[in-house]
Amino acid sequence: MSRLAAGAAPATPPADLAALHAQAFPMLPSAMIERAAAYGHEVSAEPGHVLLNSGDREAAFYILLHGYIEVLEAQAGGVLRSLLVHRDGEFTGSLDLFTDRPNSVTVRASTPSRLLRLSRAALESLILEDRPMAEIILRAFVLRRIGYLRQRPYGGAILRSTARAGQEDPVMDLAVIGGGPAGLAAAAYAASEGLQTLLVGGSLSCGDAPGLDILNGFPGTITGLCDGPLLRRAEDQSRRFGAHLLPLRTVSRFDGGCYPYRVWLDDGRMIEARSLIVATGTQAGDGAAMRVQANTAWLDGWLDTDDRGYIHTGLAAAGSMQARDYESSQPGVFAVGAARAGSVKHVLACIAEGAAAVRIVHRFLDASAH
């Protein structure tokens, strides 16, 4: 059975996207499936049986042991359109599994099938305890979100850009600073939901950084995107979808005294954005104690932080009037992941925060536009 959806144009992915496609839909080796079996249980499904319903909040992760299962998207009038077919060794799911968002697709069996089913909690345990499998799964989930964006430019939303037709607005709707788990999730959701988005990856997108093990063990959580050619392809592809990736750049300075906000990069460029999400993680501190501290010195004191640089948000942020979740003392500047004071410092919580913060960014931009 073809991997292509029924009725889709039979086309081979372009060479420059083939590597990304393979990492978005990997086939797990038998040894990994055996390890995963300890976290779930085997189920059977007859043709037509629905495993996950679009719009439901029931979350589960399936590894296909034998058969074929189809992923479908609801269109206008309730008609289901086939997106792809999974085969033996492949798995279902996306970043939505780690958020409170409802299922965006329907998954159903197209042949008699056997599957390994893991609950959300079981999947989280597996990812936290099995690093090799975690890298494969998290990389695939992020790339699937990018693929979702590629299939439907701007995610069906209207861009907020005020540029004239045929022109690009030089002011971004959102700048995401930090290419770790929280930043990647935030950028993927923001771009797919119609925001002109810039992701400044910095040192967290590739290589290890000092600090918390569960974050630093994952080079940006998606090692495949840390290869130079893949980074360049991702950057090239992103532009036509309202997203811009600068995975190897870092931020040197922030100016919160003007609006739109201004951020300077390490190469001297200046960018302007109507909102920011700070997801720059942690770094080793100075002095004998070498305490881990937030990587926020580049903010130049514009935000309310604790003595280690962790950013206060919501009601805890000094001078905060609106007390939006994840919003700092500076309106329209949000903090997620390890850089946020009071956050849970592990990779899955960071992903969830990055995705959740995008909803609040929408509210801020809506309010500031009126």
From TrEMBL:
Pfam families: cNMP_binding, GIDA. Signal peptide: none annotated. Its cofactor is FAD. Residues 24-144 form the Cyclic nucleotide-binding domain. It comes from Achromobacter mucicolens. InterPro entries: cNMP-bd_dom, cNMP-bd_dom_sf, FAD/NAD-bd_sf, Ferredoxin-NADP_redctase_2, MnmG_N, RmlC-like_jellyroll. This is Cyclic nucleotide-binding domain-containing protein. The keyword Flavoprotein applies. Keywords: FAD, Flavoprotein, Oxidoreductase.
